[in-house]
Amino acid sequence: MDFYEQDLSAVANDGAAARDLPHLVVIGNGMAGCRAVEELLARDAGRYRVTIFGAESHVNYNRIMLSPVLAGEKTFDEIVINTAAWYADNGIELIVSDPVERIDRDARTVTSRSGRTVSYDRLLIATGSDPFIIPVPGRDLHGVISFRDMHDVDRMLAAADKGGDAVVIGGGLLGLEAAHGLTLRGMKVTVLHIMPTLMERQLDEAAAWLLKTALEGRGQTILTGADTAEIFGDGKVEGVRLKDGREIPASLVVMAVGIRPSVALARDCGLEVGRGIKVDDHMVTSDPSVLAVGECVEHDGMVYGLVAPLWEMCRALADGLVETPTGYRGSVTSTKLKVAGLDVFSAGDFSGSDGTEDIVLRDASRGIYKRVVLKQDRIVGAVLYGDTADGGWYFDLMRKAEDVAELRDILIFGQAYASGGGRADPKAAVAALSDDAEICGCNGVSKGKVMACIAGGAHSLDAVRTTCKASASCGSCTGLVENLLALTLGDEVETGAKTMCKCTTFTHDDVRREIVAQGMRSIPEAMQKLHWSTPDGCSSCRPALNYYLLCALPGEYEDDQQSRFVNERLHANIQKDGTYSVVPRMWGGLTSPRELRAIADVVEKFDAPMVKVTGGQRLDIFGIRKEDLPAVWADLNAAGMVSGHAYGKALRTVKTCVGSEWCRFGTQDSTGLGVKIEKMSWGSWMPHKFKIAVSGCPRNCAEATIKDFGVVCVDSGYELHVGGNGGIKVRATDFLCKVETEQQAMDYCAAFIQLYREEARYLERTAPWVERVGLDHVKRRIVDDEGNRKALTRRFLHSQSFSQDDPWAERAGGADRQLHHPMAEFQPMTAVAAE
Amino acid sequence: MIGDWIDIGWVNEIPVRGSRTVPVAGGDEIAVFRTADGKVFALANRCPHKGGPLSQGIIHGHSVACPLHNWQIALATGEAQGPDKGCTPTIPVKVSGGRVLLCRASTLAAA
User: Fold this and answer.
1) pLDDT, mean of residues B7-20
2) Mean pLDDT along residues A600-615
3) Cβ-defined contact of A536 to B61 (cutoff 8 Å)
4) Quick check: B6 and A826 CB within 8 A?
5) What is the pTM of this model?
6) Is A276 a domain residue?
7) What's the CATH number where A46 sits?
8) Which of A79, A304, A555, A581 could pair with A65 in a Cys bridge, judged by C-beta atoms 3.0 to 4.6 Å apart?
């Protein structure tokens, strides 16, 4: 490296004239420092004598391109920005591998690690940023490295040569780039990210999900919500242990959790430092002779970690240095990246807030997601995944704050479409299509076919979907089909079945069918594949999707607590004053002294103002505070009681009369059967609440004929009734059939519940469901078709094998217990002062 | 510790799309929300409609659905959305170094 010093100092010593120029010393030979010098030279090459100190042994290279070097797509030489010749040609003295360690502002000198002291007239600090190392045990082990410079890349390449397992901590851009490179180099890579979604600062949840799916498809393991507890190993790294106890083996750990402005030098010499070195609009620090630029500075409260602001800062800095100040006004940033070869773009505020509107386009089959956020007809943010071609256009419209009201309908289709002149009206655009233009890519349906189908009497979206299948699969052409309907029929279009909610154009039935047909496994996946128009749904579709997935994937789907109504999340019923009521399960309405004592004790201990016998033969304890719920449950659990699910879209109660055991009219053991049915069906989640009753004789004291499923015992067996309701609209049950044995009664009950679970829409009780599909349909599926009945029963029991863990015990003993307690408490000043 | 901001804990203590509460002695409880995109908001834990505990609602986008009657409240402004009219007080909140900080003055004002 002496090569540069000798070579360049020779150039610098060239003329005595250069000696007399004011001396600009630059600390940092990276992209910011060199760019600033380039900008200065472009304005006035003869104004300063320049010396640059670099910590690394290299000339200035493009740090952003380290990932392609790691991935083997580029060589180091290809990413060099300023060659040795550039320094020489411009008379710049470059001192490499010798970082500055001290600034003396009084003497106006800097001193380097090797002890070299150089005096300056103007000093420019461009130290960039340092990788953030999370303070976990084992961070110093051999084999734990960061991803910041060429030296790190060399170490990663050396490790990759040996193969094996690598763990990358950090699911941001840098971490994912490191993971991609190491995967290409043949290592088995696991990415640990502490946040619930990848790249959460650049991507919204939907785009992050697409990215995660794509990366997993390339063989990486991505663990989100993964909190590192420790890096372990004997002398060198052997693996990473998470806070939840999981261990991931690794011979290499790359720490890429973030960067921090490198401010130590500035702080040590007394410059004003916040998160970064504080600079004004001309990149001047609190000392007028000292400037700073790049990732190490804080301007107007902002610290930037992207390259675009750096160019703008360097421009302002150079203007100031040549005394034609223009000033830097902060940067609006956009990120257009290839993450591991996948196109991603984000700009502005894409999180959405009050008064903003989203326009979302999802093309499931091509893996494309586009979201533009508008506020008062102006673009304020955008996220693009898969196709980022229009990123620049959106960014431009955003920076110029252009009114896009005129473009609104077609904005999301991009610049090419929007600038197509007369095609601005979507109806006109579809009218202009030729007859053989493809409308539905999934089912290969042309415009001509759709038109013929409409002419043949299909006057609604649903009718078109069932007749020619256009828009019946992924739904991305729904808008086109609707436009064709409007074009042909004008006002005569019959509006189809109601959509699930404002977030989608699909009905409940469509969504359910597609979840099963496409094997969807999560809420974000369903939203992506079905083109949801909102980023994370709403309070009506999220609980429905959660239920449909739960029903489709028993034992596999992980219930999303945040998509459940409060009662199902807290396993109690919220009351108007914000307290809760608690109902323990009493099988078939039977209880015992022990249970009654436990309930009485809970009422006294927690000062519950009321206890009431419910319509379903249970005891309801009122006025329990959220914080006390876990303790109440623990006490009830201790007496052998479990959650009564009086709060859920689930089996509520099995109401019974006393039956043949005691009653002189009883024909069968109705209480016994009630208990058995309740033990079989408790804990199952359903589209809506579900009530069962078993009466011991046709006098029907348990009121079985206004329940969702009712059994009326007779001498010769059991009459089964379905679809009753005692609510707003009273409906007596329909008679399903009569069976001979208890076991048959239970099997039919299980089959009916499962049919309801699989076919009814979320929040549809059995009564309207039976009326909608018809009793004959239910009979055909359950009574007439023995094979189908058995299959339904089997599916219900399989699902039940995962559902009968008491949610109370789980929550009272689990980590969620803390969620019942306040996060903190606040005493006003007086109280604080008195402490 | 008397400053302009009250430190109430780590942001990770609030579930994503979830909420935690902070009782204020002698005043309204505060609900602190964390949205899917990682933003944090704080409101009085009281729906402008019938006083429902907003902290227990379903959080979607930057809104919360009140658990009592499904009013949709904007987290940023506290305003009821759609046809409903009403407003819940907001409390300035920020996240710094992973810690959630509530504005002391507003917390007192709400109390």
Assistant:
1) 92
2) 94
3) yes
4) yes
5) 0.61
6) yes
7) 3.50.50.60
8) A79
